[in-house]
Design a protein that fits this description.
Rossmann fold, binds S-adenosylmethionine, seven-stranded mixed sheet, 7 strands, single chain
């Protein structure tokens, strides 16, 4: 795969291989081979405006060093910035959480989750990562006051401080992230994306049924109206000459919204882990929709 891409793109950078530092709903690790196969052979800048755990970015970083990375989740983006700017202080704080959690997991989890202390950005990132690694299913869910309210997960020995991966991420973010920020996807794309930029769009998935409705990455859900707006942006960026790849659930509404790109659409089979019912976690279809061939 790598030599094939080297031929196509000309350059393959020496970028440390790292993996997402959070478990994230809709994380794309499983779809990487398909996404890499479908990415355009040549492009100018890379945009990932629904960044989440950034599984795709960490692969694209070998092919491109001009990435615009963003998400609406403030805690998530703060953690990325702290990894880029203060990795060693973060590692020290995570080691402390690891020690305290190991002494008494349940007590420490709820104490950290429910703290009312004002935290600086490094402490906030350390808390965010610790909760993500130890909460139920790596979920991020906040109540109407914006307070994280996920219960503790069932882990034997969760790795809270993955020092090696954090140091690699620090290098990759410094080398490749031209922009890293909290911003609505519409704003960054309308303001910044131009001809020959490659945009990977991975919005909160459209529910397959009413009971499969997981859209609370922040306290704003992503509704059908949002999906329709996204389809309008997709068409606007197509007019500009941007290269777009979108993943979304394989539902009738989504297929209808992108019907003019049906000849450039593939179906991929993925396991969804964000479902409380274990038996419902397997075998969902996702669409990979492109505007280029
Ligand atoms: C399906 S997840 C992305 C998963 C990611 N591709 C990965 O590999 O982990 C969707 C992301 O979109 C973000 N999001 C939701 N609404 C948004 C908006 N209006 N603008 C930007 N990001 C948004 C969520 O915070 C979430 O991180």
């Amino acid at each position: 795969m790598k030599s094939e891409k080297r031929e196509k793109c000309g350059i393959l950078y020496q970028t440390p291989g790292c993996h997402p530092f959070v478990k994230w709903a809709g994380g794309k690790s499983q779809l990487i081979p398909q996404i890499i196969r479908l990415m355009p052979p040549k492009f100018a800048r890379y945009f990932e405006p629904f960044l989440g755990g950034g599984a795709v970015f960490f692969h694209i970083a070998s092919y491109n060093r001009n990435a615009f990375l963003s998400d609406i989740n403030m805690d998530l983006i703060n953690a990325y910035k702290v990894i880029r700017n203060h990795a060693e202080e973060l590692i020290t704080a995570l080691k402390y959480h690891q020690t305290e959690y190991n002494k008494s997991p349940k007590r420490y989890y709820y104490q950290l989750r429910d703290t009312t202390e004002v935290l600086n950005k490094i402490e906030n990132a350390a808390r965010f990562i610790t909760l993500n690694k130890t909460c139920y299913n790596g979920l991020y869910r906040v109540n109407k006051y914006g307070l994280f309210n996920v219960p503790i997960g069932r882990y034997k020995n969760p790795l809270i401080c993955d020092t090696i991966n954090l140091r690699k991420m620090n290098i990759v973010l410094r080398q490749c992230a031209s922009y890293l920020g909290v911003i609505d996807y519409k704003k960054i794309l309308i303001e910044k994306a131009v001809k020959d930029d490659f945009v990977y769009l991975d919005p909160p998935f459209h529910p397959i049924s009413n009971t499969a409705n997981f859209t609370s990455y922040t306290n704003n859900g992503f509704t059908l109206k949002d999906q329709k707006e996204l389809a309008i942006i997709f068409k606007e960026l197509t007019r500009r000459g941007c290269k777009l790849l979108l993943s979304n659930s394989n539902t009738e509404e989504i297929r209808r919204l992108y019907s003019e790109f049906s000849h450039l659409t593939e179906v991929a089979l993925v396991n969804r882990s964000i479902n409380a019912v274990g038996s419902k976690r397997v075998g969902h279809n996702e669409l990979l929709i492109r505007n280029y061939s």
